[in-house]
Amino acid sequence: MKKLDGYAAELIKDIIRDGEAVFEVDGKKYYLTQIEDAETTVKEDVEADSELKQKLLQAKKDILDGKIYSTDAVLEMIDQGEL
Fold first, then answer.
1. What would the pLDDT profile of 19-68 be if each residue is shown by its tens digit?
2. Which superkingdom, per the lineage (predicted)?
3. Which long-range contacts (CB under 8 A, 24 or more apart) does 3-6 make?
4. What is the count of structural domains for the chain?
5. Which of 24, 28, 35, 41 reaches 20 to 30 Å from 71, CA-CA?
6. How far apart are CA 72 and CA 17, in angstroms?
């Protein structure tokens, strides 16, 4: 098995999201299929782990309160001498 990450993983995810199961590379056709399901869903993980749930709720609150900044925003603040 080869584990994909970065651009390769995003490309395959895009193919899957588009509902395509067949793709072509160098004139050869390949078929994508999922061979195993996740053991649990994100919702189940959050419900089972109170610490994880608290962290997610805090992150949501921080975003709503404007305490979280994008990388671009932080770089701009650094350029402007705000940080």
1. 778 888 899 998 887 777 778 888 898 899 999 999 989 988 988 888 88
2. Bacteria
3. none
4. 2
5. 41
6. 27
Which amino acid belongs to residue 37?
D
What residues contact 40, with CB distance under 8 A and at least 6 apart?
A: 48
Domain range for residue 54? 42-79
Stated pTM of the model? 0.41
47 and 16: one domain?
Answer: no
In this structure, the answer to whether residues 32 and 46 fall within a common structural domain is no
23, 54: one domain: no
Instruction: Annotate the chain with three-state secondary structure.
Output: CCCCCHHHHHHHHHHHHCCCCEEEECCEEEECCCCCCCCCCHHHHHHHCHHHHHHHHHHHHHHHCCCCCCHHHHHHHHHCCCC
